[in-house]
Structures are given as C-alpha cells and as structure tokens.
Design brief:
CATH topology of the largest domain: Rossmann fold
Strand order of the largest sheet: 5-4-3-6-7-8
CATH architecture of the largest domain: 3-Layer(aba) Sandwich
Shape: globular
Helix content: 40-55%
Order of helices and strands: EEEHEHEHEHEHEEHEHEHHHHHH
CATH class of the largest domain: Alpha Beta
Distance between the termini: 59 Å
CATH superfamily of the largest domain: NAD(P)-binding Rossmann-like Domain
Number of strands: 11
Structural class: alpha/beta
Number of domains: 2
C-alpha cells in the first residue's frame, strides 16, 4: 500500500464521491497504483463496478468522510458538490478530519467554488478545485491534464497524488483558478465540436466523405485534438457512445457564459455553439455524446 507524508500524517485512505465515467476511471487507476480507495455513489451499480476493481464501498458520505485523508469529488454539477459537502447531517465537511484535503475534480461555478474553499478552510480542511481534461480514457490511464486552484503553500502536499492521476499537473493560482481555465477550455472544445459538425456535414453534402475531410484537416492547419477525441463519433454517427455527455457540455458552456458576463466579455462568438447545444438538449440528447449536435445540424437539411 502507498503512503505519503502530509505534515506529519500519512495518507492512508482516499475517498471518492462519484463513480461515473470519470470517477470510475480515477478510482480504479488509484487502486492499481496501490492506494487504499473507498467510494460512495447513490448508484449501487456504479459502486459495484469500482468495488470489482479493488475499491471498498462506503454506505454514506459521512462514513466516507470520517475515514478519508483526501476526499476526491467527481460530480456533474455544483449543486451536487454543495449538497455532498454542506447539506444536512451527512455533509462531508462536518465529518472530515482536521488537516484533511478535498480535491474537487468536477467542473463548477467559480464564485461558488471559492465559497466552498472558504467554508472548508474554517474547519482546517484544504480545498482544491482540480478540474480535468482527458476524458474517461485519461482517467483510467492516469494521464489526465489537471488544472489546480487553491492554497499554493499546501499544494506540494497533494501533488504526488495528483501525479498518480494525471500526466500533466498545473498549479494555476488561488481558489477558482482551475475552474476558470477549464471553463474556457470547454467553451473552445464545444465551439470546435459545433464547427466540425457543420464543416464535415457541408463537405459531405458537397461530395467528399467525412472520413476523408477529417484526414485532411488533421494534415493541415485545421488540425485539432478535438478531432482526435470526438471526430470518430461524428464521422460514424455513434452518438450513443458517450465520451463526454451533451448535458455536461451544456452545463459547462452555461458556466462559461456566466463567467464571461461577470467579466464584461461579450459572448457573441460562443452564442451559436451554446444555442446549438441548447437545441440538442431540448430534443432529448442530454445523455448522448456532445457530438450529437452534429445530428441536429443534419436534421435541419433533411426536414
């Protein structure tokens, strides 16, 4: 078993709240690397998948918090993160040990993230916003890019754990800094997915296959990692194979727009992508992959 020194204490147990695609990957990766991992999720089947890979299950958030030296959170919304940490007798912050750590790997609202850090600090719990890029494959392989916001003086105490989960760890700045980078990143990704859907559809309608177009894009100045990650789903129209759900992308685009508005930045350019994702969501595509927006575009030329 791996142990690490944290100001005279050992990390003995890593708690993980959220066993979805990302939580599953991070938890099982840590198990493979020798960490003692305990998990909690309201979805019993999701918990079972991780337990089958060597983690241990907790029956409640409070039970998990009591034994965790580091609590990792991977949840789809700021509301859920706040519920886990603050709401009711089960609230994790009521049960975490003094001197413990929270690594919130979710993508959340910047202002509310800073409030959560302040609430944690009052109880001598260090809170880091650690949103990630790299998808489920990166989580499972331990090759995520992790953008970190929080107290710089305490960052060295968790960096080795973060390195076990990520191929590139970047300390950005004070609380909320990691979320700022991630929201801007996902706005770019969502925008490129939208534009790829339109450009590949246009080329195909004009007589060139999407596969050939994609190959040539990647050999020219239009090359983008977004094509590597999401291109195959657009090309083969396998929108039910979820790399990153449309609901999560729309949530992140909404958070980006809120951030931009707060900073006085016009959202004229990002509006088109946001409206496209909103349209796809209204048509029931929330649980499909983000690339399902390409199907919305295709329907517009066939109906």
């Amino acid at each position: 078993m791996i142990t690490e020194r944290l100001e005279g204490n050992h990390i003995q147990t890593i708690g993980v709240v959220g066993c979805g695609l990302m939580g599953y990957g991070m938890a099982t990766n840590l198990v493979r690397k020798g960490y003692e991992v305990k998990v909690y999720d309201t979805n019993a089947k999701a918990v079972e998948r991780v337990v089958n890979k060597g983690a241990n299950a907790s029956t409640s958030v409070s039970e998990l918090a009591k034994v965790s030296d580091v609590l990792i959170i991977s949840l789809p919304s700021t509301d859920l993160v706040e519920t886990v940490l603050l709401k009711g007798e089960e609230a994790a912050l009521k049960h975490l040990k003094s001197g413990s750590f929270i690594l919130d790997m979710s993508t959340n609202d910047v202002a509310r993230t800073r409030k959560l850090e302040a609430d944690a600090n009052v109880l001598d719990v260090a809170y880091f916003d650690c949103p990630v890029s790299g998808g489920p494959e990166g989580a499972s392989s331990g090759k995520l890019t992790i953008m970190v916001g929080g107290a710089e003086e305490k960052f060295p105490q968790v960096v080795s754990l973060l390195q076990a989960m990520g191929g590139h760890i970047e300390y950005i700045g004070p609380s909320g800094a990691g979320q700022i980078v991630k929201l801007c990143n996902n706005m770019v990704v969502g925008g490129i997915i939208s534009l790829l859907g339109e450009a590949l559809l246009t080329g195909e309608q004009a007589g060139i296959s999407k596969k050939k177009l994609a190959e040539l894009f990647q050999k020219g100045s239009g090359q983008t990692k977004v094509m590597d990650v999401f291109g195959p789903t657009i090309i083969h129209e396998t929108f039910d194979d979820v790399t990153f759900s449309l609901a999560n992308m729309l949530k992140d685009l909404s958070l980006y727009r809120s951030l931009a508005t707060t900073q006085g930045v016009p959202t004229v350019i990002s509006d088109a992508a946001y409206q496209l994702f909103t349209c796809a969501s209204s048509e029931g595509a929330d649980r499909r992959d983000s690339t399902a927006v390409a199907e919305v575009l295709a329907h517009n030329i066939t109906t």
